[in-house]
Design a protein that fits this description.
Blueprint: H1 6-15, H2 19-39, E1 43-47, H3 48-52, E2 61-68, H4 74-92, E3 96-100, E4 104-110, E5 113-121, H5 136-146, H6 151-163, H7 178-188, H8 191-198, E6 205-207, E7 221-225, E8 228-232, H9 239-254, H10 271-281, E9 284-291, H11 297-318, E10 322-329, E11 333-340, E12 348-355, H12 359-368, E13 375-380, E14 383-389, H13 395-400, H14 411-418, E15 422-425, H15 435-442, H16 447-456
Parallel strand pairs: 2-5, 6-7
Antiparallel strand pairs: 1-2, 3-4, 4-5, 7-8, 9-11, 9-15, 10-11, 12-14, 13-14
Helix pairs in contact: 1-6, 6-7, 7-8, 8-9, 11-14
């Protein structure tokens, strides 16, 4: 008998699905699987948290896989799979949407549930997969075989991660996937042992429960997939999210309480408070806003980060020191946000040249800077320097110019920005579409300190 803390028992009472909810979801799941089986072209299978009974009450996601003969050519799998998915969605669902992962699938709504109908190959082993989704049925079978006695522990781990803002393996979150949460609970033997162990985690930690690792990884956390020795289940987990979990685990182990599972959220700033905070910081805020490219978020988000870093590096090279930068994708527009320590610079720029003993480059340098300079070239500590006119003296000039298009932007971000972008400065950065994002930028703090802050003081007067 597992002994739970009172706060954990209370959390489980709130997040554990009731019998009515359980029966309703499984009634839909069984009907969909039966429809796939009766088609005669594929076998149906429920996968994901519903199949493992590890979903949190209120979750509306249901994944039904349609397993086809591995001998089918890929194009034929997609054609037959999508035809079957459309028929089932038309029979049971309310509307349908074609989505894409490694190959297309159908999303529909059935009795209030968000249902994905996904074609895949019925391969004999996870090492023989022909597409990434082929591995998922093996994950489901493995967890169902090992989850006994740990369902409540998984629910606690998922809710703990959700409350901490670190749940989800999408590129925006870079956090803990549901499957990763399940594997960690099983490996450590429960939620409490996992929390105790996580306090001592370090970068490069390797967890290989099956003892069959067949590939080296250079990720912050390595959890070898028990059904695929060449895959790291934690590959999408960032260093930041890993150690936010470590911080939360240490905090909970020291003072366990329900706030770690049900924290209040920081309210959004008003425009007035946003402006007051910006003035108090004394920094200079700039935002580039452009239409959101119509591609998958998991494709776009890495491109946004790449573009943000490239433009931030360009600003630094021009002398406009970047204190912090973030990116955001909303339905209609994207924002690249830069907080600078300086917004204007003097016309003079000191430019470093070659060492004087580097004769091959010295002549080129001296020839290039014979005119149009403030001073130099001159020698300082064995190296040539020259003081030249700065190309841009205002950060806004750089961000309005064509310069952002000349750095290494993500492909689809560049295409969107080539159509034009809007530059906002200072208090004008406040845009209704981005209020939660801008609020979180100014209210940024670690998950544990956010919990402590909520308990110590009201969010805002």
């Amino acid at each position: 008998m597992v002994r739970r803390l009172p706060c954990e028992e209370e959390v489980l009472r709130q997040i554990r699905p009731g019998r009515e909810e359980h029966n309703r979801i499984w009634e839909v799941a069984c009907a969909l699987v039966d429809a796939v089986d009766k088609s005669g072209v594929a076998k149906g299978m429920v996968v994901g948290s519903v199949a493992r009974d590890t979903w949190i009450t209120g979750d509306r996601d249901l994944d039904v896989f349609m397993l086809f003969d591995p001998a089918l050519p890929r194009a034929e799998l997609e054609r037959r799979g999508m035809d079957l998915a459309r028929k089932i969605a038309a029979q049971f669902g309310e509307g349908m949407r074609e989505k894409y992962s490694e190959h297309p699938y159908i999303n529909t709504t059935v009795r209030g549930l968000d249902v994905d109908l996904v074609p895949c190959y019925a391969v004999k082993s996870a090492t023989g997969i022909q597409s990434a989704v082929d591995r998922t049925p093996f994950h489901t079978r493995y967890i169902r075989e090992h989850i006994e006695g740990f369902v409540d522990d998984v629910l606690l781990m998922k809710q703990f991660a959700k409350a901490g803002g670190i749940y989800g393996s999408d590129h925006m979150t870079e956090g803990f996937a549901g499957y990763l949460c399940e594997l960690l609970v099983i490996h450590y033997g429960g939620f409490t042992p996992l929390i105790e162990a996580a306090g001592s985690w370090h970068p490069g930690l390797v967890i290989d429960s099956a003892g069959h690792q067949a590939k080296e990884f250079d990720d912050p956390l390595v959890v070898i997939d028990p059904v695929d020795p060449k895959r790291n289940v934690a590959a999408s987990l960032s260093m930041t999210r890993m150690f936010e979990f470590v911080e939360l685990a240490r905090g909970y182990a020291a003072h366990p309480r329900i706030a770690f599972f049900m924290p209040r959220r920081d309210p959004a700033l008003t425009r007035e408070r946003f402006c007051a905070r910006l003035e108090a910081r004394g920094t200079h805020l700039y935002a580039l806003v452009f239409p959101t490219p119509r591609i998958l978020p998991d494709v776009l988000v890495p491109q946004l980060r790449k573009s943000m870093e490239a433009i931030g590096g360009m600003l630094d090279r021009y002398g406009f020191t970047v204190s912090r930068m973030e990116s955001c994708m909303e339905e209609e527009h994207c924002m690249l946000l830069f907080e600078l320590l300086v917004r204007d610079l003097p016309p003079l720029k000191r430019h470093m040249g070659p060492n004087i003993w580097n004769t091959a480059n010295v002549e080129n340098f001296l020839e290039k800077y014979t005119a149009g300079v403030f001073s130099g070239p001159y020698i300082d500590d064995g190296r040539y320097y020259v003081e030249i006119p700065r190309k841009h003296t205002l950060a806004a000039e750089v961000l309005r110019s064509a310069s952002p298009l000349k750095v290494s932007l993500g492909k689809h971000v560049k295409l969107a920005m080539q159509e034009g972008w809007t530059l906002y400065q200072g208090s004008d950065v406040w845009q209704d579409e981005f209020v939660p994002f801008l609020s979180s930028f100014f209210l940024k703090r670690s998950p544990l300190l956010r919990i402590r802050g909520e308990e110590a003081e009201p969010p805002f007067p």
